[in-house]
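Schema walk-through. Below, the input block comes first and the output block second. Nothing else is stored per chain. Lengths vary across the set, and this one has 840 residues.
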Amino acid sequence: MTRIYDIGPFRLDTELGVLAQAGTPVMLGARPVALLAVLVEHAHAFMSKERLIDAAWPGVIVEESNLPVQVHAIRRVLAQAPGGEHWIETLPRRGYRFVGPVSVSVDSESHPRERTLSNLPETQTSFIGRERDLVAIKRLLSAKRLITIVGAGGIGKTRLALQTASEVIAAYRDGAWFVDLASVQDEESVPAGIAEAFGVHERAGKPLVAALCAHLRALQTLIVLDNCEHLLGACASLVDAVLKGAAQTTIMATSREPLRVAGEQLYSLPPLSLPEPGSTIDDLQRSEAVQLLVERVRQQLPDFELTAQRAPVIAELCIHLDGIPLALELAAARARSLSIEQINARLGNRFLMLTSGARAALPRQQTLRATFDWSHDLLADDERVVLRRLAVFPGSFTVEAAGAVASEPPIDEFAVVDLLSQLVARSLVNADTTEVGPTRYRLLETTRAYAQEKLIEACDVAETARRHAMYFRTLFERAPDDFLRLPDARLRAIYMPEIDHLRAALDWAFGPGGDATIGIPLAGASGPLWGTLGLFSEGARRLEAAIARIDVDTPQSQQAMLWRQFGRLVDESPARAQPAFERAASLYRSIGDRQGLAHTLTQLGRALGQLGRLDAAEAALGECKSLLAYIDVPWLHALYFHNMGLLENRRRDFAASLSCYEQAQALFLGAGDEISAASASGNRANITWALGDLEATESAFRQMIAIMRNSPMRTRRMLGWWLASLAGVLTERGNLDEALVAAREGLPLLLEDDIAWLFVSHLALRAALAGRLSDAARLAGYSDCAWTSQQATPHPVDARTSDRLRSIFAEAFAPDELERLRAEGTQLSESQACALALAS
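--- output ---
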């Protein structure tokens, strides 16, 4: 027996879970329909949030915030009737109540439903996630007669098709029918597969396809045609014949590539949604991949819970498995013998690890390797070659990169473009067309792991890695000049997506079997990108590795570039930067590179100014100015004024310094470099700080922080810099609690690049003003030692802070006691000093 409700112009079938209007199913997901059923069955009665959540998400722990989202979806549908948007009443902080018109249909309990015409297999496990996909496919089914769900092996195409069919079956008078072609081996047998489902037999003198179309002509039905990829030609011919010969038949196919039949509507099925790294438990529970993994593990271990301790490992496991349902199910099957941590740790051998699927599953769905072998076996030889070579890309890549890396006679670059498109169509390569600009392609991590195995088997790793490194060496050759001339947005589009490829190419070039003659120019040319991304420490390490490989055959231009870019990456440690810049300047002089020399001299001038060698800094910047008269690169002129501003600041000519920073800011903006312009503006605020206008300085620093938080070009170092600066000025203003909040966010960001020491004196003052005098003395001892070891001259504000600390300490400590505490501070590491500074 079933119960059917009439709700105004709507009819709700609670058994089928279908809401219809005028006989047509409304596009509403399974969960909102389940909620509506509970509300209607208890019309005019209060229903608690807990009861509703249990109805829509049985056995699943979800956030309460999910409930209003589903109720909103119901209201949006009911609003199609006059006043329908008010039929569900909200009881604040309690739940909901249905107050609209409702009655039990005459078609309901007193009239038992005839058995639905269907051969849809009963599913043995719960359906997790895919709410958006369900709604989208239902909407397409109402307007299209052929929907093909395409996606990679194990992505969940069959499960989604079955769930969709079960939810829309009432819309088809003659039911929904499932035809599984997985076990069909020859194309001639395809028509028989469908005919068998409908009991149609071939008759003498009448082809089976014609007989089938004649039978279907009188039916209004939905056919689920599953696993078409290995029989594409036959499936396409049969589907085309049915669509033309049976006007009331709708077909929903699943395949790893399109059927390419007229009128076909593709639906590309993505992996399950993944958690963001570092997500909270609440955020994790919204991830479909996490929901599936946890639910399937509970089938093995009923008491399994998503705890705070397990959360990071579960998130990492789901991300490593790309949100592929088959892979997650296979991983969950191991939970009886291995912990989640142990499963995750063994994913380096995922194809050996993820086996032992359900015995009733098809052989190709019982192991992860089998499902990939199935797809691989369907490829032509040249498609297999290109797929395995694409495994060398650790991240997304362009068609140009694919052409350069995957081509080798007899497969040329033009052929690679066609083959790449075919691999996309076969759901083995993902194409991202959502971003503005050129399409970028990528392999899921699991697909890439499989392709890497094939690359190794083909003994093609070394040559493919070489072509990969050579392509990115060529791409980055123009980077140093581009970073002087192109606006931020353009640089971001060209170079930032290639950071993983840059790392891979450098690892190969300087690793066993690599080629340093490719790595050295690539490392030098990559210098600006490391700084732009805020990866100063990593960039410096990689450039040092390249410098170590310089030999007598290395061109001087490449040596000069390496030394200059290395100096830039360590320029907050001027004692390291100064000799690198001097080495670069000497090399540029010897080869007559005027622009390279000018660029180096302005950076050298900055380093010398930080070291307190003001006359030498003036000489370097003066020579740079004379060279710039012949160089039409506005960004270099901006850099000159920016570094002159630092020199004038150290001379305590604050008016001249402000003027220089203003000119630098205007030139940077004109060159499209918004971040450097913001830096110049921040340095103007430093002058204001030095002049003692603390209120204006605080306002400027807060503005800088807002800019950094919202800019796509921000770096962790720059955000940390202005947060730490804000902490310093708040300390001077006596806002000690706010200063600690800013420091706790900013200082760890600077510690990543080993430059947190620059701000420890300000936090020593904060500790002193908070009554932590002994800790303040230790921090002051650490700070003075750090400035000395770095051979750097403190900023005027730092000098003022040190003077104030000396006055406080003179009143608080005897000389011997102060000396002892300061000596203890000199033994602290940078991280220890930061931890002490950030204590309450």
